[in-house]
Amino acid sequence: MVRNKAVLANAGVRGFAAILAFASQIVMVKLLGENAYGSYVLFVTYCSLIFIFSRSGLDVVALRASSVAYGHQDRAQFGQVFRRVLTLGVLLSIVWALLFSLAKQLSAFKRFAQSDAGVGWVLAGVLGMTLLAVLLGVVRGTRRIISADVVDSIAKPLVIMLVIWILVGYGSHGNSVGYIAFIAANLIATIATAALLIGVDRKSRWREAPGGSRLELLSPRSAATYITYGLITYVFFQLDTLIVGMWLGTAEVGAYNMACNFVRLVIFVPMIVVIQMQPSIASAFHSKDFRTIRATVAGAMKKSLFFAGGGVLALVLFGRWLLGLVSESFAGAYPTLLVLAFAHLMNSAILVLTGMLLMCKEQKLVVMAQFAGLCVCAPLYFVLIPRIGTIGAATSVLLGLVVNLACLTWLSARWISKDKIA
Description:
Layout: H1 4-32, H2 34-55, H3 58-71, H4 75-103, H5 107-110, H6 119-141, H7 145-169, H8 175-203, H9 220-237, H10 239-248, H11 250-262, H12 264-286, H13 290-326, H14 334-359, H15 363-388, H16 390-415
């Protein structure tokens, strides 16, 4: 079951992290300028596209496998999880970063890959993102969820602000300042996460099993499914940024991305609820305890929708002021912010159902629902963004998520039917 105290504690961490993230965005816009900030956003968005392939579901596998190994106090299997996901993460990051760099030379792809960053910047960015993601998956599998969130949500914004402040203070300017800050944040967060795992290893009472239990590796078929899921998610929440960059320029990218940042207020508590429930779901599924799965998901869904509704209300009341606080020109994105807020109200329910299905190895159902929404969302980007700008992007996301939620609800209900309740 999702524990209320754990949710509240994690909500406190995430709440502080949200304030910190807000502060870091203000710092970046003020120090870098609107255009350089937009270039930074395009760089991170481009790296995130490659990250889908380099990650290949390794973070989910790491969370699921480490949760089982840690629950059984199986040190040998836990070590296998750590070593294999780390090795695969490094190899996949290098391979996919190089492949995308070659593809970027094609004129058809270059228009989407608007970032001017070279292959070295991109490789460093993708490698840092991948290693951090898989190690955080291992940490969360050991129930150190709050610690993982502190590293991921607090350490990274602090490093970004500090690095930009130092570089600009010493006279550095240009897009590379943002690139360096992003890469440094991932590197330091990865080191901190590795330190957490060393502490887990020393404090745990491991059961030494000769040779360890056999670790189920990520098959190419499963990896392809996770990549497909990641690409569909990317279409919903990041492809629109690239298309805005194609048609409207870096300043509009900055304003739209700022609206997307603030709309995270809607889903920040639902994300906590999902992260808290996933280890319990993984353990229950391993034991074939579908009754516990169903009860956990029902409780998580109520919390998720309640807090998401509060987030929407806050943005309706204070959204324009928040955008204007960053930059006066960003206040014009307030209508876009409102549409995105209601889109993420849908997403708060999607997160719960998706988190459950991924822990139960039913990623195919997630992909099916996402694909249905994609068929609505993707074409609308190219129709609405050139005509009505960022509001068109937000409207496309909203309609796609409505279809996604409807399909995911139906598929989840079928899968976890009463026939599976012992």
